[in-house]
């Protein structure tokens, strides 16, 4: 059975919460959607391949001949309306296909969930106020750099895509707490500047093409902010940072299936390592 679109979009100013089994649908009074938000919603709908939209998808209710905040709820189901600006947008789990258009105009958007679809192409320019960005389980490719400017971002999940190039992003001013980029094609050395992210607690770069050694700076993070670290199934080599061993009880995760000299009594090393020869061609040199 085709799946319905579980989209929840926060748009308008006045509302009364109506509780249902699945979503909260507000009643509208007098307000109107910003034209910029309406235009971007229209562009997003038009960017999706019509053949990937189920006949019973709620996306078919998006009738832009009326204002989303002034029309019948039946025309824009399911919507949650709480301000004149769009703050939450989810089109997850629909198998929608197509590129993602430029979304920077949604300047008040704090949550964007486009996960578990078939969106493809490069990452677009994104709203600067995003706090949660979920693009996992798509076919996105190219560079991850468009997200580096999002200093309000707290959670980023781009796992299970085709992102490549090197990773060198995020500065000290970011508020990022969770970074999940596993199952991509990211390569090069592990980015040292990730240790400067003060609030980062979860880092998952497993199942990529990273090579070289684990930066010694990573050893300072267990026992400070890092609680979870997954670097398994890459092509890393060399010794572990010494503090990975002394602080092993404070960090969960995995370093398995690399070419590391990883003591078997370290929980992070459970699962074994590749033969060293498998990493020779991947390494582009030592640090």
From TrEMBL:
Keywords: Signal. It holds the Pfam family LRR_1. It comes from the Eukaryota. InterPro entries: DNA_repair-toleration (IPR053211), Leu-rich_rpt (IPR001611), LRR_dom_sf (IPR032675). This is Leucine-rich repeat-containing N-terminal plant-type domain-containing protein. The lineage of its organism: Eukaryota, Viridiplantae, Streptophyta, Embryophyta, Tracheophyta.
């Amino acid at each position: 059975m085709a799946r319905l679109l579980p989209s929840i979009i926060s748009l308008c100013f006045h509302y009364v919460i109506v509780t249902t089994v699945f979503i909260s649908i507000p009643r509208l009074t007098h307000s109107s959607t910003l034209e910029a938000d309406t235009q971007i919603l229209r562009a997003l709908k038009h960017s999706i391949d019509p053949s990937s939209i189920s006949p019973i998808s709620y996306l078919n209710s998006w009738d832009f001949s009326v204002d989303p905040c002034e029309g019948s709820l039946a025309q824009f189901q399911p919507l949650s309306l709480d301000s004149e600006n769009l703050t939450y947008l989810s089109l997850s789990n629909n198998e929608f296909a197509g590129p993602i258009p430029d979304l920077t105009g949604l300047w008040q958007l704090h949550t964007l969930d486009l996960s578990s679809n078939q969106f493809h192409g490069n990452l677009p320019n994104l709203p600067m106020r995003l706090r949660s960005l979920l693009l996992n389980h798509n076919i996105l490719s190219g560079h991850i750099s468009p997200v580096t400017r999002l200093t309000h971002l707290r959670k980023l999940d781009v796992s299970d895509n085709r992102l490549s190039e090197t990773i060198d992003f995020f500065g000290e001013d970011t508020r990022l707490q969770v970074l999940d980029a596993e199952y991509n094609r990211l390569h090069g050395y592990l980015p040292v500047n990730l240790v400067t992210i003060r609030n980062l607690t979860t880092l998952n770069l497993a199942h990529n093409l990273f090579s070289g050694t684990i930066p010694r700076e990573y050893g300072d993070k267990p026992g400070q902010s890092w609680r979870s670290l997954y670097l398994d199934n890459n092509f890393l080599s060399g010794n572990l940072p010494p503090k990975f061993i002394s602080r092993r009880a404070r960090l969960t995760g995995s370093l398995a299936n690399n070419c590391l000299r990883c003591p078997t009594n370290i929980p992070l090393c459970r699962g074994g390592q590749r033969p060293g020869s498998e990493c020779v061609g991947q390494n582009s040199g030592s640090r």
